[in-house]
Amino acid sequence: MKLLYKEIRLCAHPTSLVFAFLGCLVLVPAYPYSVILLFGSLAPYITFVNARETNDLWYTAILPVSKAESVGGKCLLVVSLQLFQLLFSVPFAMLRQGLHIANNPVGLDATPAWYGLGLLVYGVFDILFLASFYKSGYKAGKAFLLASIPLGSMMVLVEATAHIPALSWMDSVQPEDLLRQLPILLAGIIGYAALLFLAYRISVKRYEKVDL
Known about the structure:
It holds the Pfam family ABC2_membrane_5. With 212 residues, the chain is an all-alpha fold.
């Protein structure tokens, strides 16, 4: 927790905190909600660039912490920003239903299925971004470019599910359809946790070989 506090106070770029609050965009009537996931992926990238420019890796290296703990602090920051964003969006998704706003014509609504798929999108982005970044400890742009390709592809697929008749139940808020979506949400939670754990292990292994 001390490392997370240090990351939030010294490393988290102000714009990343702004992006975290953009979960409220699920209230917009016609908007591709998967773009919210793009903002949640830009937040780590901007934060890692900011950390590089302020020599955070060198500063952390002189602290009484291991490289594994340094990586763990960054991973906790990424997870905190992304989960905060999604949790912050939940009340707005519920308000949307309370206001009886029409179904989103652009793509998938903010249903449990969307949250499950969104977590998987984040998980895939994080493992590619973090594992690539910690090969050198400073090439954030290259890492983001590598991770953004599957990120964009998965965002398109998530939105496309709303336009596939056989998967129309994923875009519904009817009680019976919400129950069908719960396994997708559960799979997303498990997948996100597994991918983040794997991202941490790979990142630590690679960062241990980096000569600062």
